[in-house]
Design goal:
Blueprint: H1 3-33, E1 46-50, E2 56-57, E3 62-71, E4 80-88, E5 91-95, E6 101-103, E7 109-111, E8 115-122, E9 128-136, E10 141-150
Parallel strand pairs: 2-10
Antiparallel strand pairs: 1-3, 3-8, 4-7, 4-9, 5-6, 5-8, 9-10
Length: 154
């Protein structure tokens, strides 16, 4: 056997060794990268929808606002919160039916259901405007704005 044949055999052996090692390493990495845990999606965006409401209200009158939170998916541990801010005029916002909870501006309240009713009671004779914010535990937030003109000035 000449020197050329020995070098050729040595090169082939090294090439086979390197190829086998790389293949084995890739196989080990592929097995390690498989996650045996089932991924459960817990973060779903949502839409805050309200039914149409009148455009005018008189002092002392109540307007019912029917609300629905529609999430793209359902994760039972997601909680929704509501808060509101009165921009113009004065009034109070109530949550629920039967025994109602009076909401204070800019305080956050847990919503027990995804379908609920709000009741806005006018306390002034001027245009009234307020924003309602609904957020979830994952940081998603939706805003709906309302404006009521005074019925006496129509």
């Amino acid at each position: 056997m000449n020197k050329y044949d020995i070098e050729k055999r040595s090169f082939i052996k090294r090439l086979i060794f390197i190829t086998s090692t790389v293949t084995l390493l890739l196989f080990v990495f592929a097995l390690n990268s498989c996650d045996k845990q089932l991924e459960i999606q817990t973060d779903f965006p949502f839409e805050f929808e309200v039914m149409p409401v009148p455009k005018s209200i008189a002092k002392g009158e109540t307007v019912t606002i029917r609300c629905t939170i529609k999430a793209e998916g359902n994760y039972e541990n997601t909680k929704y919160y509501i808060r509101y801010f009165q921009v113009d005029g004065s009034g109070k916002l109530l949550l629920g039916s039967g025994k109602m909870l009076t909401l204070k501006p800019n305080d956050s309240y847990l919503l027990p259901e995804q379908i609920f009713r709000l009741h806005y009671v006018s306390e002034s004779t001027v245009t009234q405007a307020f924003d309602i914010w609904v957020s979830d535990t994952k940081g998603h937030e939706q805003k709906v704005s309302f404006q009521f003109n005074d019925k006496g000035k129509e």
